[in-house]
């Protein structure tokens, strides 16, 4: 680690940190995801057994977290691209970060029911 | 305030400039080369433009991945009953179509290469000892090649009648 750095950036630094953390998380997820999908070459039973665990409430919460990571990384990635290629990008970078966070919140609220609904029904009946 | 008017430029006449400098079209000032200018003597770069290509690839693949990955999440987690519908039969139905085979193949390659290149940057940033970098990157590249090959093989050899 670059030890003892005193740099404490503002929004720009934190969005960069979050972009990095989410990118690394998604990469590790993808590695495991290709392994579990490969079970379709073993047997239908092996695949279905593993996928069954993905339908449990706890994993549903993890899936919601994955969606959160992907959506942030994707939206902020588009912002980074806009800063790099759009001549007015750097001037609007902060405004664009707030737009990214706004869209992210809206999409996360929209994802609540589709991703977590079945877990809620399983835990609290009906 | 009147002072703002008199010192509008903030800088007095610069010594040795203007008509007093002694330079004229007949006696031009010596040309100073820009410090980083490439000349014939500049050594040829031996590394090519790999880092620039990698930088560009991150952005181009990112744009394509927005469509591929968010589309994938929509199909797997939101539409048609969400995660509950997933199973061997569901995958068999999807990979019966070349369109989704190509979709998944492209997503696999782009996401793995994009992620691996991103992790290469992260390793370069934090692993300070040359040896540590070497080992971490060796591990990263091995895992990446393995995952891409396995995923590709699975898409192309999928057999709905495995049993
Ligand atoms: C929790 C959320 C996710 C679920 C439930 C899910 C589900 C699936 C399923 C059922 C398949 C089988 C093929 C198909 O139906 O297309 C698949 C394949 C695949 N998914 Fe996902 N997926 C998820 C998230 C992701 C994410 C975030 C990525 C990319 C970063 C991704 C990348 C892939 C790839 C590359 C394949 C092809 C695998 C192969 O070649 O063997 N998935 N996924
Ligand atoms: C969904 C669409 C995506 C977009 C628009 C996107 C965009 C970007 C961009 C523009 C960068 C470069 C950032 C920079 O140079 O500062 C980047 C970095 C990165 N991305 Fe993505 N990406 C996407 C998906 C993914 C996926 C699926 C993964 C994992 C497999 C991933 C992992 C990473 C990693 C690890 C980095 C390096 C972060 C860093 O150096 O700090 N990204 N992404």
Question: Can you summarize this structure?
Answer:
Chain A is about 80% helix and about 0% strand. Chain A has about 130 residues and is mainly alpha-helical. Chain B has a domain at about 50-155: Fumarate reductase/succinate dehydrogenase, transmembrane subunit (3 helical TM bundles of succinate and fumarate reductases, Up-down Bundle), CATH 1.20.1300.10.
Molecular structure report:
The complex is a heterodimer of chains A (126) and B (163). Chain A is mainly alpha-helical and 126 residues long. Helix content of chain A is 79%, strand content 0%. Chain A is built from four helices and no strands. The model of chain A has no long low-confidence stretch (mean pLDDT 92). Chain B has 163 residues and is mostly helical. Chain B has a domain at 50-157: 3 helical TM bundles of succinate and fumarate reductases. At the A-B interface, helix 1, helix 2, helix 3 and helix 4 of A face helix 2, helix 3, helix 4 and helix 5 of B. The structure holds protoporphyrin IX containing FE (2 copies). One protoporphyrin IX containing FE (HEM) sits between chains B (69, 72-73, 76-77, 83, 86, 91, 94, 100, 104, 107-108, 111, 151, 154-155) and A (26, 30, 33-34, 37-38, 63, 66, 70).
Write the layout of secondary structure elements.
The complex is a heterodimer of chains A (126) and B (163).
Chain A lengths: L10 H27 L6 H11 L2 H29 L7 H32 L2
Helix pairs in contact in A: 1-3, 3-4
Chain B lengths: L2 H4 L43 H29 L9 H8 L2 H29 L3 H28 L6
Helix pairs in contact in B: 2-4, 4-5
The structure holds protoporphyrin IX containing FE (2 copies).
- What low-confidence regions of chain A span 5 or more consecutive residues with pLDDT below 50? none
Oligomer: heterodimer
Global shape of chain B:
elongated
The CATH class name of chain A reads: Mainly Alpha
Give the name of the CATH superfamily of one domain in chain B. Answer: Fumarate reductase/succinate dehydrogenase, transmembrane subunit
Strand tally of chain A is 0
* Largest sheet composition of chain A: none
Largest sheet of chain B: none
- At the fold tier of CATH, the topology name of chain A is 3 helical TM bundles of succinate and fumarate reductases
| Contiguous helical run count of chain B | 5
Largest interface: A-B, 39 and 38 residues
Instruction: Please identify the structural class of chain A as seen in this structure.
Output: mainly alpha
From the N-terminal CA to the C-terminal CA of chain B, the straight-line distance is 92 Å
- Mean pLDDT of chain B equals 87
Query: Which structural class is indicated by helix and strand composition of chain B?
Result: mainly alpha
Question: For the CA atoms, what is the radius of gyration of chain A?
Answer: 19 Å
The helix fraction of chain A, in percent, is over 70%
Spans of chain B of 5+ residues with little confidence (pLDDT < 50)? 1-7
Number of helices of chain A: 4
DSSP strand count of chain B: 0
Structurally, the number of domains of chain A stands at 1
Main location (chain B): membrane
Keywords (chain B): Heme, Iron, Membrane, Metal-binding, Transmembrane, Transmembrane helix
InterPro entries (chain B): SQR/QFR_C/D, SuccDH_FuR_B_TM-su
Protein name (chain B): Succinate dehydrogenase hydrophobic membrane anchor subunit
